[in-house]
Structure formats: C-alpha cells, structure tokens
Design goal:
alpha+beta, two-stranded antiparallel ribbon, 90 residues, Alpha-Beta Plaits, globular, 2 strands
Length: 90
C-alpha cells in the first residue's frame, strides 16, 4: 500500500468488514506494505475464513474506489498470499 489515502480508507473498510463477521479489532497497525492486526473473533468463526474474507472484500473495495488512479488494482493482488497468526486469550 503505497498511498496514504488507501491506508486511511482501509481503516474504515476493515472496521465495517469486521463488524459483518462479528469480529473486533483490538489493535491494528497499517504499514506501507502490510497490516498487523490483533483481532477478537467469535468462537464459531474459522480464522482462515475471516482473514480470507477481510483480504478479498478489502481488495475489491479498494479496486472500486481507487481503480481510476495511477495504480490499477483490477487484476492485481493487493494482498500477498497467506497470513501469520498467533492464537491465545487476552
């Protein structure tokens, strides 16, 4: 994510997508090329499905919102494949 406008936009997008999946962001840091999140998810949720949903829907939303700018996200991958996770209770 090279554009500060995209990072700012994604904060709201992630918040809405998390609400739709009954998740809560405890902490989040958006770097220029990746995101760190501490997220609480319902026990009925599968972590890989939640992450996949967040990545897919946010990429689609960014492509629709910023597709007319210099960098065209249509047909490109906004997020790299995979994710890292640490499970635990706070």
């Amino acid at each position: 994510m090279e554009n500060g406008k995209i990072r700012t936009y994604l904060k709201g997008v992630f918040h809405e997508l998390a609400r739709q999946r009954e998740c809560e962001f405890i902490a989040r840091h958006m770097a220029t090329d990746h995101v760190h999140m501490c997220t609480s998810i319902a026990t009925k949720q599968v972590l890989s499905k939640v992450i996949g949903y967040l990545k897919a829907k946010s990429a689609i939303t960014v492509a629709r919102q910023f597709g007319d700018q210099k960098r065209n996200f249509n047909g490109e991958n906004l997020w790299p494949r995979g994710y890292a996770s640490v499970n635990g209770r706070l």
